[in-house]
Amino acid sequence: MTEVDYKNVLVAEDSSVIQNLLKKILLFENCKITSAKDGQSVLDKYEKDDYDLIIMDFNLPVMSGLEATKKIRSIKNKKGKVPIIGISGNAKNLPESTFFEAGVNEYMQKPLDYDKLIELVKKYTASAE
């Protein structure tokens, strides 16, 4: 029996419904999921553990996901630049460049296209295998 190589994913989402959906999807992709409900929790968890991927909602309490992304990008991490998939349901009026300038690798608008999300998870966690 071979050991399964899990990918360590941080899910930053304050909606428990969306968080649970993301967890169910990610479990099928051999992901170990850590959850955070606000931007400060994201930073705290990121500084304590290495992640293969972060899925970041931009509209988080305490500190926005955009601000948390900028701070993550400013941290010199032993693992390098962790990929971040940014998600948002309330950022339609902002230009996409706002998200990429903050440091995300990909951006998805809610409601999420789960097939596209799985494709991106596979793309960014392939090197973690």
TrEMBL record:
One GO biological process term: phosphorelay signal transduction system
Pfam families tied to this protein: Response_reg
CDD domains in the cross-refs: REC_hyHK_CKI1_RcsC-like
Keyword terms: Kinase, Phosphoprotein, Transferase, Two-component regulatory system
Lineage: superkingdom: Bacteria
Keyword match Phosphoprotein: yes
Modified residues (4-aspartylphosphate): D57
One function term, GO molecular function aspect: kinase activity
Domain Response regulatory per the UniProt entry, residue ranges: 8-125
Protein name: Histidine kinase
Organism (species): Roseivirga echinicomitans
